[in-house]
Write a structure and sequence with these properties.
The protein is mostly helical and about 270 residues long. The chain has a single domain, classed as MetI-like (MetI-like fold, Orthogonal Bundle). The protein has 10 helices and no strands. Helix 3 packs across helix 5, helix 8 packs parallel to helix 9 and helix 8 packs antiparallel against helix 10. The longest helix is centred in the N-terminal third of the chain and has 37 residues. The radius of gyration is 22 Å and the shape is elongated.
Amino acid sequence: MSLSNRMACWGLVIFGIYLFLALITPVLVSTGIFPQPNAGIDNPIYAPPSLEHLCGTDRLGRDVCVRTLQGSGVALQVVFLALSLALLFGVPLGMISGYLGGIVDRILVLIMDTLYTLPVLLLSVVLAFLLGRGIPNAAVALCVVYVPQYFRVVRNQTAQVKAETFVEAAQSLGASSSWILSKYLFRNVVSSVPVLITLNAADAVLVLGGLGFLGLGLPENVPEWGSDLHLALAAVPTGIWWTALYPGLAMFTMVLALSFLGEGLEAWISKVD
C-alpha cells in the first residue's frame, strides 16, 4: 500500500471516529449516561482527571470530556453547513463565469479575487463580528471565505473544457447554455472539488477554532473547542493543563485526519485521471 493510500485510510478512520462520537454523544447525554456539557454547579471547579471526570472539569465545574466530545459534533455541523453553502454558490458562479466570459466573467473575477486576497481569518473575524455569534452566523462567515476558492477552480476548468470539441459540437447543434452546463461541463469540472472540500474542511476547523478563541464564534454555552481553549488560557500557567489539552488535541487530530484524507484523495484522483 502506498503512502498516500495509508494516509487516506488513517484519515478516514480518525474522521469516522469523530463522526461516530458526534452522533453518539448527544444520545448518551440525553439518556443521562454522560453529564450535561453545561452542568457544573455541583461539580468541583478545576478538578483533575479522575474516574468521575475522565478529563477533569473547567473553571465552571463542567466536564471537559463531554464538552470535548460534543465539540466534535458542533465543529462538523458548522463546517458541513459552511462548505455546503460555499459549494452552492461557488460552483455555479464558477461555471457561469468560465462559460460566458466577457463582462460577466470580469465582474465575477474582480469580486472573487478581492475576497480571495483577504486573509482567511481576518475576513472571517470581520464577518463574524458583523453577523454575531451563533452556528448559522459562523457558517455564513466561513462560507464567504471559501466561495472564491471553489469559484476559481471551477471557472478555470470550465474555461478549459469549454474549448473541447464535444462542447463546440453541442453548441453547433443549437443546445442551450443551461443544457451544456448541466450535461457536458458539470461532470468534467467537479473532479477536483472533493479534494478541495476535505482540505477546506481541515482549514475551516482551524478558522472556527480561531473565532472561538477570539470570542467571536459560538455562545459560551455551546461546546466548541476554540472557546474552551480561550477559557483555559488563564489556567494553564497555574498547572491546570487538562482544560486546554483535550480540546486542543481534538482539534489537532481532526485537522490532521481531514488533511490526510484530502492528500490521499488527491493522489487517487490523479492516478485515475
